[in-house]
Design goal:
Keywords: DNA-binding, Transcription, Transcription regulation
GO molecular function: DNA-binding transcription factor activity; transcription cis-regulatory region binding
InterPro entries: DNA-bd_HTH_TetR-type_CS, Homeodomain-like_sf, HTH-type_TetR-like_transc_reg, HTH_TetR
Mean pLDDT: 83
Oligomer: single chain
Strand content: under 5%
CATH architecture of the largest domain: Orthogonal Bundle
Protein name: TetR/AcrR family transcriptional regulator
Structural class: mainly alpha
Number of domains: 2
Number of helices: 10
Helix content: over 70%
Distance between the termini: 69 Å
Organism: Stutzerimonas degradans
CATH class of the largest domain: Mainly Alpha
């Protein structure tokens, strides 16, 4: 792929993602998508296998960015407040550059094929593990999942109110910091035992 062609497609791709965000992934036909991007369907197929791959690539990039932010937090300043402040700034900046990805991640993730969905689920689990390490040394998976939900949704909620980037950053910071005491108190779920272990325990109980 020529560099110029790749750069042109990248610009078109952002328009495509915004179309998915505005109208819904399932409502956009391939012909409508190509027309909106300003290319033919044949040209579209030279870059991606179809619109689902376009969605997957965007969501994979999105969650890789969030994973990087979470990993930086674990490696950085041990105090929680500076970690959250850095995360708040980074989240607002990420949303400013890629707003459609936040909406697509929360609303259209279910449209992915099984293999692609498993990849996204794997990235989300890794983010949860990193966030749980922030909270209680990795022993807070429920809290990590809730914190990820907050991180995914807060930029969307706040952007709807016409706030400046600085105002959004301060609010994200305050909301995340305010949630931490409650998150730390969330119980961890009971471990799910393999079916064979449960069956063995049932047999042991019957023979006792």
């Amino acid at each position: 792929m020529h560099a110029r062609s790749a750069a042109t497609f990248e610009i078109s791709r952002e328009r495509a993602l915004q179309l998915f965000a505005d109208e819904g992934f399932g409502q956009v036909s391939l012909r409508r998508l190509a027309s909106h991007m300003g290319i033919s369907t044949a040209t579209l197929y030279t870059h991606v296998a179809g619109k689902e791959e376009l969605l997957f690539d965007a969501l994979e990039e999105h969650y890789e960015h969030l994973l990087l932010l979470a990993e930086r937090g674990v490696r950085g300043e041990p105090a929680v407040r500076p970690r959250v402040q850095r995360l708040s700034r980074a989240l607002v900046e990420l949303y400013r550059h890629c707003p459609s990805r936040f909406l697509l991640a929360t609303r259209e993730r279910h449209c992915l094929r099984d293999g692609h969905r498993r990849r996204i689920d794997s990235l989300r689990r890794r983010i949860v593990e990193q966030l749980a390490t922030w909270l209680q040394g990795g022993e807070a998976p429920t809290a990590g999942r809730v914190l990820l939900e907050l991180i995914e949704h807060l930029p969307l909620w706040l952007a709807a109110h016409g706030l400046t980037a600085e105002q959004q950053t301060r609010l994200v910071d305050a909301l995340l910091l305010g949630s931490l005491p409650g998150l730390r108190q969330l119980p961890s779920p009971e471990p799910i035992l393999p079916t064979e272990v449960i069956h063995h325990a049932q047999l042991q109980g019957r023979s006792a």
